[in-house]
Amino acid sequence: MTESIGAFLSQYIPPELAVFIVSLLPILELRSGLIVARVVFEMPLYIAAPIAIIGNMLPVPFIIFFIERILGFLQKHGPIKKFAGWLERKGRSAGDKLRTKYPKSLWIGLFLFVAIPLPGTGAWTGSLAAALLGLKPKQAMVPICLGVLGACLIMSLLTYAVPSLFGFTV
User: Binning pLDDT at 50, 70 and 90, where does residue 170 land?
Assistant: First the structure.
């Protein structure tokens, strides 16, 4: 799927912009941006990594600052009123439990959640979690930023270093 999106975008925009857009999208994020850069465009890591990091980090402050307002609006209007309400209640409830049980470990947990490149984790979900945990934007930005850098390191190893060990080069 990631390669298909990259191939589609490559028909209309420059490779750097395609990597940026893929990295900007939820679910795909940086991990897919680096895969597209390597597999579709054969882009060197020193070019791909900064583009993917910036693309992945760009939406983070907006999510942290505006997600509560968006969820509040969706609870009152639109077709997903019940889901938006459930999401906020569930998030706040889980956040209260975590803050009570692990008050000093939220930062590390958020970092690991963003850094480990698994489905359902990443900067978008980490930003949503930070907002629902009640973390202040300045408190949330550092672990999310470091988590994106960690994810970049892991994905760089998986998409560039490991294939090179087996003779695949860019």
Answer: low
